[in-house]
Amino acid sequence: MPRKPKYLGKIGERGLGTELRRLREKAHVTCEELGRELGCSPNTISRLERGLRPGTTAEEVHQILTYLNVPDEERKGVLNMVKGYAEHGLLEHSRATRPGPRGAYRRFESRATKITSFEANVVPGLLQTADYYHTLLRVFDVAEERFEELIARRLGRQALLSRPNPPDLVFMMTEPMLRRPFGGHKVMARQVRAIAEASERPAVSVRIVPDSVVEHPGVAGSFSLLEIPREPLVVGVETRNSMAYPEDPEEIEAYRLGAERLINLTLDDQQSRSTLDAIAKELEKAR
């Protein structure tokens, strides 16, 4: 008799599980302690946190959040993750006052061995300079008193690039976006130089979609593909206030194939570095 395929967990279950684990560790509660409260084994808690326990109910999650003393605002966000994720994938919301990746994305990101992303309008967060992100926060009408905290978080997230054994990172972005003096010519020139410097790292590949390519799969919007060992491919589709993770295998495959088509339309690594250098020089002359 053929062996039953190993259950790898749906994206909604995995996203919920990583968030519950973060909250449990933040509260300094062990799997054993939480299991006793819920009347289950530590292994059940471990499976839930790894996204390997299908059918977790909102009532169970509410009980966990209550035991961990999770604040109401944070609790609401976690409970929203439970609703409908089994059918539609994971939809993670964030406050409009904090643009950038959400908690589940950051935890998928930290475990990935390869991340491929496409950005049409904004420099990828892992490559943004402090001045560029400062401009982005201002554009999003974020309260100025929060700038220092949020910029520190953004720069802290970029430690991923320099950690031992970093993931392979493929950043695809459009040439028109890089030429726009977002924040002014001086800010954008430094930003483009920073991208070029990052592209010299062994694990980083920066690929530019040139001006001449106007018809490409990226016109549908920005997206990321995260490859995590022994888990299905994670696709993240970001808007201003949310990150969607589709569950439908056909939709995931469409993004994977779209990324393949898109990379074939980009300049290669050396051509992209030369283009970055040329753009930076033009911006520096204009300021």
TrEMBL record:
Organism for this UniProt entry: Herbihabitans rhizosphaerae
SUPFAM superfamilies xref list: lambda repressor-like DNA-binding domains (SSF47413)
Q: Which residues form the HTH cro/C1-type domain?
A: 20-75
Q: List the protein's name.
A: Helix-turn-helix protein
| UniProt GO MF annotations | DNA binding
InterPro entries noted in UniProt: Cro/C1-type_HTH (IPR001387), DUF5753 (IPR043917), Lambda_DNA-bd_dom_sf (IPR010982)
Instruction: Please give the Pfam families that the UniProt record associates with this protein.
Output: DUF5753, HTH_31
